[in-house]
Structures are given as C-alpha cells and as structure tokens.
Amino acid sequence: MPWNSCQRRLKLLVIVAILPALVMIALSELVLAQAPEPAGHPFALSHSSLTDPAIETRVEALLKQMTLDEKVGQLAQYSSGAPTGPSAGNADYPNMIARGEVGSLFNLDSARAANEYQRIAVEKSRLHIPLLFGLDVIHGYRTTFPVPLALASTWDPSIVEKAARIAAQESSAASVRWVFSPMVDIARDPRWGRMVEGAGEDPYLGSVMARAYVRGYQGKSLGDKESVAACVKHFVGYGAVEGGRDYNTAEISEHTLREIYLPPFYAAIREGSASLMSSFNTLNGLPATANPFTLTQILRKEWGFPGLVVSDWTSVGELVAHGIARDKAAAAQKAIAAGVDMDMVSDSYHPHLADLVKSGQVSQARLDEAVRDVLRVKFALGLFEDPFADESREIKGALPTERVEAARLSAERSFVLLKNSVAGSRPILPLTNESGTIALIGPFVDDARNMLGPWAGRGRPEDVVTLKTALEQRVGADKIRFAKGGELQTASDTEIQKAIETAKQADVVLLALGEEADTQSGEAASRAYLNLPGRQEELLEKVAATGKPIVLLLFSGRPLTLPWAFEHVPAIVAAWFPGIQAGPALVRVLFGDVPPSGKLVVSWPRTIGQIPVYYNALNTGRPPGNTDLTHPPQDSLEKYLSRYIDEQNSPQFPFGFGLSYSSLEYSRTHVDSVKLSASDNAIHATASASVKNTGNRAVDEIVQVYIRLTGTSMEEPVRKLVGFKRISLAPGESQTVSFPLGAEAFSLWDMQNKLRVEPSHAQFWISPDSSRGLPAELEIVE
Ligand code: NOJ
Description:
Helix content is 32%, strand content 17%. The chain is an alpha/beta fold. The strands form eight sheets. Strands 11-18-17-16-14-15 form a six-stranded mixed sheet, with helices on both faces. Bound molecules: 1-deoxynojirimycin. 1-deoxynojirimycin binds at residues 84-85, 136, 180, 233, 312-313, 523.
C-alpha cells in the first residue's frame, strides 16, 4: 500500500475507533506513538520516489503480465563474485536470468560484468525486467572513508552524507544501484566485531547518522543515475547478540526495542530508505527473518514502510538450523509470511515458492505484495528506462582530488584524543617542528591494507597514503627512525629489540598498534579478549621502558581494554581504521594543523567483565553514585550496591568523550522554562550553556545535551542524548550554545508501549561528554 494512503488509513482507524473516548491529551500521545523522531530533526518524509502513483500504475500493469514463476524469479537474489558469506554453491546465472528466475545479483566487480548480465535480462527474458545489482558499500566504494564507527565519531552528519554521496556516485558508475548500508544496529558490546559497521551505542546519534547515510545514497531522487537505493540493516536486535558472539541470540524487551534498537531504523525509513535487511539473530525466541511482529506489525503496519525487505545472506535457509523450519520449503513459507520479500542467496524461494502458492500455503496476495516491493524499487531507480551502467564513468586511474580531500577531512574529524599528558613543560601533543627525531614504530605505521578497515567496498590499498609516507613528506625522512617491531600477530625477539633501539635514538615515539582489520574486526570476528593481539603489548611496554615520550595510535574497529597503556602511556589517540587518507589526516592532527575533535560513540570499557557498559543505563535501586569505589568494599554500606567488588562501574572513557589541544569551560546549564505541560502538543523548552575556550589553541568542540526524566511510569536512563552541536572556538572565545527541545526529547515509551510525554521531573545537562556537567531542572505537569 502506498505510504500516504497507509498513513491515512491508520489515522482514520485511530480516529474512528477511539475518538469518542479520548481527550486531547491521549490523542496527542497516539500521534506521538507513530512519530518517535529524535529531537531537533524535523520529520522529513522522502519516500516520494517509491510512492509515485505513476510508478504504482506501471507496477500493477507489469504484475498482471507475470507468470507465477516470473514472480518468484523477482524474489531471488544471488551472489556472483567473491562471496561475503558461506558459499552458496554455483548457479547457472546466465540461463536463469534468461528464464526470468533472478531478481537481483550482487558482489560483481565492474560495470562491464554487470552490463553483460543485464543484457541477458533485458534482451532475453520474456518480460525484459532489469536486474538490480547490489553490493556491500559500507564506507565508500573505491574512495574509502573511515569505518562507520569512526565516521560516527565525527558527530558530523554532513561528513557522513558527503561520504555516502561519493559512494553512491562511484557505486552507480559500476552498475551498483543498491548498497547494503547503512548498518544502524545499536552496539553495546565491543566483543561483537560488527560494532565497527555502525554508529555506536546511542539511538539519537544513530538516528542522525542513519538519516545522513540515506540522504547521501539516495540524493534528491532515486531516479538520478548517480543515486543508489539504501538498505538499512539488520532488522533487528543484531547488535544485542548474547556474549557479543556473532549470529547469536538476542533477548530484548519490547520496551527496550522501542527505546533503543528501533529508532535508527525508523529514522532511516522516515528519511526514505528504499529497502531494509532482516537480521540473522533470533529475537525473543523467533528468528528475525521469520518475525511477523517486527517485519509486518512494526515495519509495515506501524511505520507504513513501502520499500523492499531482503533477507540477510542465507538467513531464510538458516531457519532450518534455527529449528523453526524442517526444510527450505518451510523456511521459505515462514520468511515470506513474516514479511521478507527477497531471499538473499539461500535458494529457498526459487525452488519452493511457486508450489507453496499453488498449495495455498503462501497466499497469492502476499506473493504479489513482495513482487510489487521489488518492482517499485526497480522502477524508482529508472532501471527500466536505463538499465545499463555507463562503463566510461568508472574511475580507472587516480581518484579525483575532491574525493580524496573529503576522505581526509572525514578522517581528521574521526580521531578521538583519549589522553594527552604533560611531558616536560607541555602536553606531548601536538607535535611541533621542534619535536626532534621521531621514532615510528609498530606494524601499522606503513600498512595500507589495514587502513581500509574490514569491509572496504572496492577500496584499493594502492590508494592509501600511510602514516610513514605522510610523515616523511611532513618532516623529511632524515628526521624519522623506523622499525616495524614485528607483525600484528607475531614478532621475533630481534624485531622487538630493534624497535627498542630505534626508540632510544629518537626524541619522541609514535607507536602504531591495533587489531587486524580483516580477521579481528567486522563480521564473524567476535573477540573474547580485547587486548592488542600478538606481542604488541609487550612491544609497547618495552618501548615505554626506554623513557621516551610515547604517542600511542590505536587502530581498531572497537574499544580495546588496555589498562596498562591508559595508566602509563602519556598520549593516546583512537584512530580506528581511517581509510585512504589515514597518513595525511593523522599527521595534520598530530601536528595540530587541525584540532582533534572526534568524540566516542561507545563507552570504552576498562575490562571485559564490565561489558555491556553503556552510558544510557538505568539507575538501579542501589546505584553506587559517582564516587570512586573501594576494592574490596569496606563495609555493608559500600557492599550492597550495584557494583563490582574489584573494579569501578564507570568505563575507562565515557560515551561522548574526546579531548582537544585546548581547555574548555562549560557554564551551568540553563533552561528557559521551569514548568511545562505534558498535554501541550507543542511542548517546548530551550536549554543553553556557554562554552569558553580557556586554552591557547583553537578548538572544534562537540557540545552535547542530555536529559533525565524521573517520576515517569517506566524507569528512564540516567542520561539520554537529545541533541548536539559542533562549534569552533578561538582561544579565549566563548559562545552560548542553545538547544531547542520539543516533544521528542521529553517523550518515553510507556507501559503500553506508546510513546508519550508524561508528567515528570526533567534534568538537563549541556556537557562535553555523558559524565559531566551541572544540570538544569524543570517540571512537566499534567
Ligand atoms: C551478511 C552481512 O550480515 C550483511 O551485512 C551483508 O550485507 C550481507 N552478508 C551481504 O554481503
């Protein structure tokens, strides 16, 4: 059903059924229940490409001409090229395409390869329906940007949108008009390797980033040749897999699902995401790929999603392993009935759907609906008019300068300065031209491949400028002493000894350590230990023992638990996997050409035993407060608290944390009202604070605003991010930063799982991270 008419029907239903019984306040609650928008981001419905009535007419006309087998064919997707999951065996694609048995292919390498398949589809198949080509374009196609966790650490949606737009231009040039991104899974557990692919632990920030990706990919219109259809994934709860073990089970209450895990999906869909991918995990006892509550009730009925739902790789067939289907036919029946339109790779729909429809186990209506969802996207993309990619648009040589610059800028803003202690008379960073000889040590200093991260689209190591190259360009090779210090996983005594000797010859040491992008981060890379692999920690400690000032650059797709380093190493930067401009971006930040401005989008645990540790937690009935805990507890007052007897509750670094090269002073938060009414549809307050740069260097600061509601029907988190702003301050400059806060900021999901504003007490903090600041307060009355 088209989005508009679906919305109209929903509203009508609500009004007819309950109007007589409801007073205005309750009605406003229901309207809100359908519109859980993050604060500060006005509702923008941009499904226009998918809801164009002219497209609907063409879809219906085509559907009428299709045989049952041709319909099933549109719902089958296969991988052709290097697989991104367990191999699905070989298929005879050219003949299948000619028979109309394939709707989509992915993992192809070039426009030429895609065009060859496309020619078969549009010239040989009976109805000439074009194929839709997909790919995992996660943080760039060839121009590789920092990994999504790093992109989110910029807290800068314009950077994300630009990266997604460039990715769209390059993907579409290669015939890829469908990208399996954004990944918006909330991740609270860094053992889960896929934390790297998302925007971290916060639903508000995650929603802002989700929208930016969709805007970038889809542009103003899906029909634009340079636009690609987004695919928001993985629906839903995948980030909550138990123990952080990939593909594992997730248990999430409906309340937490709506408060935490659903908002970024909703945001992407409101922004117009043309498609959505179901996830691998079981959610509350039912695999997400066969879950009608999430895929039909929430996605279609509550949200009115008009787009295409694709399964994850073989996740339809995996319903057999889950034990809810005895064979692939039963798996196909459950998946399509729940709401999955297209079967990615498992080859369950292709051989079984037609029989399931003939026997009545799958209704003709449901089949048609699924086919419509596929065709609608193909029409909206303009594939029927223009199915082929222009092979000359594919970049063969060097990347255009403007794209390289976008990659550099995004990397510069993604680094998070975690520590910068004084060594001698001043902090170690930024380095200066007087910093003297620099020892460049560690397996990452001249590594191109790892800079691309675990999932680099069609990124090429030869496009990467490494730290070593960039530093040589900056200070000259004669000022650098270089030692790799071994490999990531292994190092010989000789290599470690050489690194120590190299450090001794220098005035300052840059030590580049971390986890291996491909095998230790990303999909199927859950880790039970979050330390530095191989002998890297030994290397770190031995180099530190030389007494030379050290700057530790951490390359990883997640926080690493390194208590020794955080205590003993004076300067530490979380560099993530920064993409093709890793070297130049790092050098510019290390030398202070640009200030470090990234902030953490996940809480950084001290130890694995604290996981999951996240800032927007509930208070419990026995919170230990903010003070440092004694270990072990000294008396019963200290003992019977929600705490560890052997570690602090607080993380190593809180969500939102990141240092700059200057110092900042935040005034107490001010709010312009003391009392608001929960029944006021236009409920509104403005929180403000002044922020002053008290140091002597320029800063780019990400000012954050948090809320806590008490006296509510359901327990609310101790803090919830409801807005943020990036500001620049010259030394000595101060600025008043204001946040208009509307209903979204004050609302919560109640006991009936409705989003509403309740009478409550609100506290606000405008602060540099989630753990600091002095609150302002206001009352929300009836
Ligand atoms: C499995 C991954 O979970 C998903 O994110 C990806 O898009 C598909 N494979 C396709 O490669």
